[in-house]
Amino acid sequence: MLLATIVLWALNFTVTKYVLEHGFQPLAYSTVRYGIATIIFTWFTYGAEGSFHVKRRHLWLVVLAAALGIWLNQVAYVYALTYSSAATIALILGATPIFAALIASAIGLERLHTRFWIAAAVSFAGVGLIALGKSSGVSGNLKGDALGVATAATWAAYTVTIAPLMRSYSPYRISALVLAIGWVAVAITGITQTIHQSFDLSALVWICLVYAILGPLVLTNILWFRAVARIGPSRATLVANLQPFIAAIFALVLLSESITAVQIVGGLLIGGGILLARQRRAAETT
C-alpha cells in the first residue's frame, strides 16, 4: 500500500505537467480536479463514519489546514509546474520534511539541535543546486522554482497544522473537510479561468484528469493512512522520501525532460540532509 501510494503521488507530477501543457489552465484544472475529488471522498467518508462533526474549538484549525494544504498549496503547485519542469519541482519538494521541522520549531512544537541545522543547510544547498543546475540556466525558471519552494513550505505547514486534529478525529474526516473547504477557496480564486476554460480537449488529457482525481487525491488518502497504521509513521515517512526521485524518473522517461549532474547532486543533498535529521531524532527516541 505504501509503495503504491508513493508511485501514485510521484506520477502525478508528470500527469499534471502534461495536462497543463495540453489545454488546461492551471486554476481551472485544480478547480475541476478538486471539485470531483471532494464529492467522491466526502461520499466515502460519510459512508464510513456517518458524520463530519468537529468541535467548535477545532474549526479554525480545519480552516487553516484547508487554506495551507489545499488553497495556497495548489495555487503554488500548478503554477510551479507551469513555469518549471516536473523533475525539478519534484526534487525541490523533497525538502518538505525540513520545512515541517522548521515550522514545528518556530511555533514551539519541536526543539531543534545543531545536527538538524546542519541537515537543513545541506538540504537547502541541494535546493539551490537544483535551481542553478539547469542546462537552460536559472533565469527562465526562477519563478517556477520559487513556487516549488512555496509548495513544499505550504504542505509542510499543513502537516504541522493537522497534527493536533489527528488526535481527536480520523484522518478521513479531516481530509474530507479540508478538501471541501479548500476547494471552495480554489474555485473562487480560479473562477475566471474556469469560466473561460475550453473543454474541447484530447482523450489523453481527460484520462490524465481521471487519474489525477482517483489516484493521487482519492485512493492515496485511503492507502497512505492504512499503511501508516500498519507499519508506523516513522517508517512510512522514511520510505516516502523516495517519492521525489521516482517522480523525477517519471518526468525524464514520459516527458523527455532533462536533468543535469548538478541537479542530481542537489537531489542527493536534500535526501542526505533528511537522513541526517532523522538520525538525530532516532537517537533521541532511543
Structure characterization notes:
The chain is an all-alpha fold. The chain has one domain (2-285). 80% of the residues lie in helices and 0% in strands. It has 13 helices and no strands. It has helices spanning 2-21, 26-49, 59-83, 86-92, 96-106, 114-132, 142-166, 171-189, 191-196, 203-231, 233-240, 243-254, 261-285. Helix 3 (59-83) packs antiparallel against helix 7 (142-166), helix 3 packs across helix 8 and helix 4 runs antiparallel to helix 12.
What fraction strand?
under 5%
Rounded radius of gyration (Å): 18 Å
The total count of helices amounts to 13
Give the beta-strand count: 0
What's the rounded overall pLDDT mean?
85
CA(first)-CA(last) distance:
28 Å
Total discrete domains = 1
What's the SSE blueprint?
Layout: H1 2-21, H2 26-49, H3 59-83, H4 86-92, H5 96-106, H6 114-132, H7 142-166, H8 171-189, H9 191-196, H10 203-231, H11 233-240, H12 243-254, H13 261-285
